[in-house]
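Lab notebook page, bench 4
Experiment: in silico fold of construct C2
Operator: M.H.
Input chain length: 83 residues
Purpose: comparison with the prior construct
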Amino acid sequence: MFHVYLLKCRETKDFYIGYTNDLKRRLTEHNAAKSGFTKGRKWELVYCESYLSNLDARDREQKLKQYGKSLAMLKRRIKHSVE
């Protein structure tokens, strides 16, 4: 299983979009300062999508990272989770 996820920084309310095949391990790495952009901050998982196909997950991650309509629509769908 492959996962596309959205993290929210607890302090700054910044967002991070990522992709992994092990969500629990990846969230632990983000919070343990083992990842470049997310280093030094505490993150919480606010959304996750799971895919059987690696390519489908990577395509979705790229669409969300373009910060266009895809991300805006997702944030509207989960507005109470990202506040």
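Observations: DSSP finds three helices and three strands in the chain. Residues 2-77 form a domain with the GIY-YIG endonuclease fold (CATH 3.40.1440.10).
Next step: discuss at group meeting.
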